[in-house]
Design brief:
about 240 residues, alpha+beta, 2 domains, four-stranded antiparallel sheet, about 40% helix, elongated
Length: about 240
């Protein structure tokens, strides 16, 4: 007997729950509800609940959404993968069912709330450079371990490309060994870069949060190797 999809997938869960200022200075909540991506990052959609706990807005699904709220509860909601901003559209709000109180990490059995393509209460626009930067910095703080692991894997891959001094007398042998080491090192570096890219997608990181730690991790190793190679002849002469 084939199991149903809800039985195979993990239950939807909330990640960010923030207070947000709605029309007429009413304070409601914006919540991020995640589904199950199985082999990919979990899809996520923003929900807006009013002061009475009623669902008034449900945004489209995305792969990576970040919420940034000020002390006055003015919130920025950014989809980092498509570089779009979710702006509230009070004119299209609906008086939906009352939602239970939730906290970050809470799960729900309301599959209908997470599933489906029907959306309302939001309008989309292109995100500006400052909004993308703000959202990336917030996501980096939330995913500091994942960002750090990307840098570590990139550094390991870069180390595989660092040339080593060969002391064999035969120039042909040295050339052959260097070619082999370069090919092997390139494959190791490429493999680790692909792994980090897949891990970044699996964890909902943006392209920028994959690229920056990759460049920094690899660059740090190559810079250190260059310094060591320059100092080695000086140490040998002294």
């Amino acid at each position: 007997m084939i199991a149903s999809m809800p039985a195979l997938a993990h239950r939807p869960y909330y990640s960010q729950v923030e207070r947000i200022r709605l029309a007429d200075n009413e304070i409601g909540e914006v919540r991020l509800l995640h589904g199950d991506g199985i082999f990919f990052t979990d899809p996520v959609r923003p929900l807006i609940v009013d002061a009475k706990g009623r669902l008034v807005a449900r945004g489209p699904k995305a792969r990576s959404i970040v919420i940034s709220c000020s002390d006055e509860h003015e919130c920025l909601i950014v989809d980092l993968w498509d570089e779009r901003v979710y702006d509230l559209e009070p004119g299209s709000f609906r008086q939906g069912p009352v939602q239970p109180e939730v906290r970050d990490g809470d799960r729900t059995d309301d599959w209908d709330l997470e599933d489906g393509d029907e959306n309302w209460g939001f309008t989309m626009r292109e995100a500006g450079a400052r909004e993308i930067l703000t959202a990336n910095l917030i996501l980096a703080r939330q995913s500091i371990f994942g960002v750090g692991m990307i840098a570590v894997f990139a550094a390991i891959g870069a180390f595989a490309l660092v040339p080593f001094r060969l002391n064999h007398r035969s120039r042909r042998v040295r050339l052959f060994v260097r070619i082999i080491l370069s090919l092997v090192g390139s494959m190791i570096f490429l493999f680790l870069v692909i792994v980090t890219f897949w891990l970044s997608m699996l964890n909902g990181l943006s392209f920028e949060l994959w690229l920056v730690p990759t460049v920094l991790g690899a660059g740090a190793v190559w810079l250190a190797a260059g310094i060591v190679r320059r100092r080695a002849p000086r140490a040998a002469r002294s």
